[in-house]
Amino acid sequence: MTQTVSGRVEALRAAMDGPVILPGDADYDDGRRVWNAGIDRRPGAIARCASTADVVAAIGFAREEGLEVAVRGGAHNSSGSAVCDDGLMIDLSLLNKVVVDPEARRALVGGGALLTDLDSAAQAHGLAVPAGMIGHTGVGGLTLGGGMGWLTRKFGLSIDNLLSADVVMADGRVLRASADEHPDLFWAIRGGGGNFGVVTSFEFRLHEVDPMVEFGLFFWNLEQGPAVLRLARELLAALAPDLNIVIAALNAPPAPFVPAEHQFAPGYALLVTGFDGTPAFAEIAARIRGDLPPLFDLVTPMPYVQLQQLLDEGNAWGQHCYEKGTAVAELTDAVIDVVAEQVPLKNFPTSIVLFYWLDGAYSRVDDDATAFGGTRSPQFAVAIVGFAPDADLLAPDREWVRNFWTALRPLALGSGNGYVNTMSEYGDERLRASYGSAKYDRLAGIKTVYDPGNFFHRNANIKPA
Ligand SMILES: Cc1cc2nc3c(=O)[nH]c(=O)nc-3n(C[C@H](O)[C@H](O)[C@H](O)COP(=O)(O)OP(=O)(O)OC[C@H]3O[C@@H](n4cnc5c(N)ncnc54)[C@H](O)[C@@H]3O)c2cc1C
User: Fold this and answer.
1) How far is CA 363 from CA 84, 297, 357, 377, in A?
2) pLDDT tens by residue, 141-153
3) Ligand 1: distance of its center to the CA of 20 in Å?
4) 273 ligand 1 Cβ < 6 A
5) Is the Cβ atom of 274 under 6 angstroms away from ligand 1?
């Protein structure tokens, strides 16, 4: 397969503005790397596209040559779907331009932009769109699966703020998907992942977000876990819309604000954010300190763009990762028991469990308005993530992730299969269950219209009907 790509690659080179990188080229090893260091694949060629026309050329080349295709946005997906062995990797990293229209409160975002690119460009005008919590995640994969972060309670998922997208289809056509143009495609790309084509440009609605936010990190030891979760349950029951709380089971970082005796200690944290100068933040910080004094805390204002990069270093490229997601409607005592039992069983200090609380604007969108998997009822999205520096150290935490997930499953909302963007492994039944049969069948019907040959299948794959 590699020889086939090499033999005809001059035609692709001539057709593209961006470079085509082959095995042996200086950029090749860097170009094929993805965020999850456990993925080591060698594409036959990397088409680093600089324009929509380049993407059309790359897709045409792959189609004519019968090549397997992988699409790379930010390369963050832990399944490694951004890279394939042999075949053609369509790399969108040069398509990272963000153009903000502050009057219209719109942003045009290249299909390979990172969250950092989007956050900084929008915040230059005091604006933002809800997205994820790690700056080096790609806007592309994150948005096409849903996109949740600090602003989701306030403004919904990323897809709830998507107005249109330019999509290069498997047959090379470039379609605009919006409420008025190809509305079925527009519905499908809001949750249905990279199944329908390559998005070269996203158009988002922006919201005013004060450039300074309040941030608090409160940390307790393992034994206090059940008490922390009960406190979070109480706080979340009446949480002001300008606040957000993420619950994390993690080891204390070796940061300057962490007393030396607690650095690396396993425990639980509440990460609290307050937007737009809300006084509710100070009240909740005082209440946490009063009700359950933490081992240590950090409470500080910071720029929104800094909040969006706060966890970048802890989630840096180069770790081996295996993750599974699920959802629970509430932190019932039974859920708390499972969490308290499973968290101490992890092997490596960097492995982590996160509970994202989704309600407010998230829940004001109808279940069927987008292809997002799962329901819009208030709930916790749960991510159980094994992180380790090498495959051997990750192996026990891969089992830990699976066991934890299995223990939570009887208590989970719906099928328990969770957010499609937190799956390191797919599988037909799992995906169908994650979307629900009715939504999956609707997606499969749209896939049949736009990609009947399943050209785009290296993803959370929806099979044509
Ligand atoms: C450490 C970490 C933190 C995370 N935090 C969050 C979070 O806070 N919130 C959240 O919602 N998710 C989060 N995620 C999940 C994240 O949304 C997914 O991993 C997502 O797939 C990453 O997108 P990407 O473009 O970087 O990935 P890639 O690996 O490049 O892409 C994944 C797949 O998406 C498709 N794709 C990407 N870009 C395009 C495009 N332009 N056109 C067509 N298809 C495309 C392709 O099928 C590709 O294979 C996190 C993941 C990790 C590993």
Assistant:
1) 37, 31, 11, 5
2) 999 999 999 999 9
3) 23
4) no
5) no
